[in-house]
Design brief:
About 45% of the residues lie in helices and about 15% in strands. The protein has one domain: SGNH hydrolase (Rossmann fold). By secondary structure, the chain is of the alpha/beta class. It is globular and about 40 Å long. It is built from nine helices and five strands. This is SGNH hydrolase-type esterase domain-containing protein. Pfam families: Lipase_GDSL_2.
């Protein structure tokens, strides 16, 4: 039986044809257009109920549209990762960077991704950096990957999948998490 991989996140996640692109896995997609980090937190019960082998989290871009700060978004993402680790201690977690979009958001997205890259290992999660693949030097999404500087086109999804496949292979080669060793009371 193939490993189950559950995608959670916003419209960028929802629009991915993950089952087609990842035929070696049992893929489920809970992404939805317009979803924010608050809504991902609210749906964690549904994630836990499915008991996937791995969770791929990609969210945050819509929070920027609501003018939420990098601190707010990072705090919510940390909440997602901590809740997944606590409630599904054996799940493998892959956190995907917030992708680039319009230049005005570049500094905020860089800050979010910097914090996520540092925080992910504390929850035994793997970080997947799409920013460096999709961004121009000024931080705006490369026009080759988006027609409107926000939504991803086919070339962007191809780039994502080319990074995602080896990341999932690595994710499944490693133990899902480390657990505390119980100490007997004497």
């Amino acid at each position: 039986m193939p490993a189950s991989v559950l995608f959670i996140g916003d419209g960028l996640t929802a629009n991915g044809l993950w089952s087609d692109w990842l035929p070696d896995y049992d893929v489920h997609n809970l992404g939805a257009t317009g979803k924010t980090t608050d809504e991902v937190i609210a749906e964690l019960d549904a994630v836990v109920d499915r008991r996937p082998d791995a969770v791929v989290v990609q969210v945050g871009s819509n929070d920027l549209g609501w003018r939420r700060s990098d601190e707010y978004i990072v705090r919510n993402m940390e909440t997602v990762l901590c809740a997944l680790r606590k409630r599904l201690p054996a799940v493998r977690i892959l956190i995907v960077s917030v992708p680039p979009r319009e230049r005005e958001f570049a500094d905020t997205v860089r800050s979010i991704n910097h914090h996520l890259r540092q925080f992910a290992p504390t929850q035994h999660a793997q970080y997947l950096d799409l920013w460096s693949r999709l961004a121009r030097p000024d931080g705006e999404i490369d026009a080759a990957y988006s027609d409107d500087r926000l939504h991803l086109n086919d070339a962007a999804y191809a780039a994502w999948v080319s990074e995602l496949k080896p990341a999932l292979e690595i994710l499944f080669q490693r133990p899902p998490s480390s657990s505390a060793i119980p100490i007997q009371q004497i």
